[in-house]
Automatic annotation (TrEMBL):
The keyword Oxidoreductase applies. PROSITE patterns: ALDEHYDE_DEHYDR_CYS, ALDEHYDE_DEHYDR_GLU. The active site is at E243. InterPro entries: Ald_DH/histidinol_DH, Ald_DH_C, Ald_DH_CS_CYS, Ald_DH_CS_GLU, Ald_DH_N, Aldehyde_DH_dom, LUC3-like. Pfam families: Aldedh (PF00171). The keyword Transcription regulation does not apply. Keywords: Oxidoreductase. GO terms for molecular function: oxidoreductase activity, acting on the aldehyde or oxo group of donors, NAD or NADP as acceptor. Residues 15-465 form the Aldehyde dehydrogenase domain. It comes from Psychroflexus torquis (strain ATCC 700755 / CIP 106069 / ACAM 623). Gene3D superfamilies: Aldehyde Dehydrogenase, Chain A, domain 1, Aldehyde Dehydrogenase, Chain A, domain 2. This is Betaine glycine aldehyde dehydrogenase BetB. Belongs to the aldehyde dehydrogenase family.
């Protein structure tokens, strides 16, 4: 079984100590990854620190050109990397799956390459002129998750290097190989040290976060881990961008015709088997519309083929790992014990792989764990409401605030309701519709900082004001 290496200073590093990576659809061993240690973390950070001044000294046009070459590498290797995503993460090749993820990797590389951060004249009068310049932060430590392993890594890597920073990336131990391979390929067009990887478990991530020469940390994952990062980074005063998931609410306004919107809502909830931070994870439906909504969603669920994502025609794969599988199963069991109605699904499918069916639950409400906790899986609780203000109040009754959505035929009414939802992004008649030009980030326990677009590019820079005193005219 091949041992896949991590990259430090442009060189592939293999170690005798490795860890296994398995296919969540079959349980088969698909490879092993070299295990980094604390010395490797220090070497990677040192390489990034040494490479950063010369990388930052390159012109904007040079860095843009190089990032566009990265996009070309990703496009040329889409099929190869998509196969790794499916084998490691479980999402199918087809539909909104691995090929979709790789297309997003290319797009989220090309867009930052097209953006500029020009010098801003922020104040000027007869006596002075003040300019705001954007400088790279330095060395960025990035920790990527297992749900969209390559796409989210690209979200962290590309704005950082576009702005003149260098990066040390640790992928999730559940989905390591595809990310290591992507970085190996990217390094064929980058100067040594600009992009480095280390691999392993939480101890390696902690070593990276705590390192004295890391200037900024970018993290996507749980709020509990984010809190540990906040605590651990106090020694280096690293800047932070934290995206910590959410428990997004979707509200369907009374009388809304859902026939034309149902498929968008379905994928808003169940893309990547619900293993997406900004999925719809709670659905609030007026009591008069409940039966119609349940019927259309359960009908869609019955038509979506689930299985090994390497097989033709599959659009839904497994849950990625046993920890998450057990959490989803526990939450559904708890809901059933509290009297929840199982509209469809509700029990593991059995056999090899972590397969759990699309599950719709009724007769639930705020206060039930399945509603209050982020399930991060293929389960959607559907909650009845009597008046819209009740739905808004219940939607906001959460510690998280990443996204939300409002569904309605009257767009003005929907916009008024959307403005009352406490979330970083609220979509209307869509959910999770992120875009590389549109800032994305959360509030409350969903973290802080934004990614994407100009604001995301600014987030990987530090401002510097140049203040010029004008000569006195005699």
């Amino acid at each position: 079984m091949k041992n896949y290496a991590f990259t430090i200073n442009g060189k592939s590093i293999s170690t005798e100590k490795t860890f296994d990576v398995k296919n969540p659809a079959t349980g088969d061993l698909i490879g092993s990854a070299s295990m980094s240690n604390k010395d490797h973390v220090s070497q990677a950070v040192a390489a990034a620190k040494a490479a950063q001044p010369s990388w930052a000294a390159k012109s904007d046009e040079e860095r843009k050109s190089t990032v566009n070459k990265v996009a070309d590498i990703l496009a040329e290797n889409t099929a190869y990397l998509a196969k790794w995503i499916t084998e490691e993460q479980g999402k199918p090749m087809a539909g909104p799956g691995s090929m979709f993820e790789m297309q997003a990797c290319v797009g989220w590389t090309q867009v930052p390459a097209s953006l500029d951060l020009p010098v801003e004249a922020i104040f000027e009068d007869d006596t002075r002129k003040d300019e705001l310049h954007r400088k790279p932060v330095g060395v960025i430590g990035a920790i990527a998750p297992w749900n969209w392993p390559l796409m989210i890594a690209i979200w962290q890597i590309i704005p950082a290097i576009r702005a003149g920073n260098t990066v040390v990336l640790k992928p999730s131990e559940y989905t390591t190989i595809g990310t290591l391979e992507m970085v190996r390929l990217i390094n064929t067009v980058l100067p040594p040290g600009v992009l480095n990887t280390v691999s392993g478990g939480g101890d390696i991530g902690a070593s990276l976060v705590e390192h004295k020469d890391v200037d900024k940390i970018m993290f996507t994952g749980s709020a509990s881990t984010a809190r540990r990062i906040i605590e651990s980074s106090k020694g280096n005063m690293a800047r932070l961008t934290l995206e910590c998931g959410g428990n997004d609410a979707a509200i369907i306004l009374p009388g809304t015709d859902m026939k034309s919107k149902a498929e968008d809502l379905f994928w808003g909830a169940f893309i990547n088997m619900g293993q997406t931070c900004a999925c719809a994870k709670r659905l609030y439906v007026h009591e008069n519309d409940y039966d119609a909504v349940v019927e259309v969603l359960s009908d869609l669920a019955s038509k979506m083929p689930m299985g090994n994502g390497m097989e033709d025609g599959i659009v839904l794969g497994p849950i990625q790992n046993k920890m998450q599988f057990d959490k989803v199963n526990d939450l559904v069991k708890d809901a059933k014990s509290k009297g929840a109605e199982v509209i469809c699904g509700g029990s593991p499918l059995g056999g090899p792989g972590y397969f759990y069916p699309i599950t719709l639950l009724g007769n639930v409400d705020n206060g039930h764990r399945i509603v209050d906790e982020e399930q991060f899986g293929p389960v959607l609780p559907i909650i009845k409401y009597k008046i819209v203000e009740e739905a808004i109040q219940k939607a906001n009754d959460t510690k998280t605030g990443l996204g939300g959505s409002v569904w309605g035929d009257d767009l003005d009414q929907a916009a008024k309701v959307a403005s009352k939802i406490q979330a970083g992004t609220v979509w209307i008649n869509q959910h999770g519709a992120i875009h590389p030009m549109v800032p994305f980030g959360g509030i409350k326990d969903s973290g802080y900082g934004v990614e994407f677009g100009i604001e995301g590019l600014k987030a990987v820079t530090r401002p510097q004001v140049i203040s010029i005193k004008k000569p006195v005219l005699v």
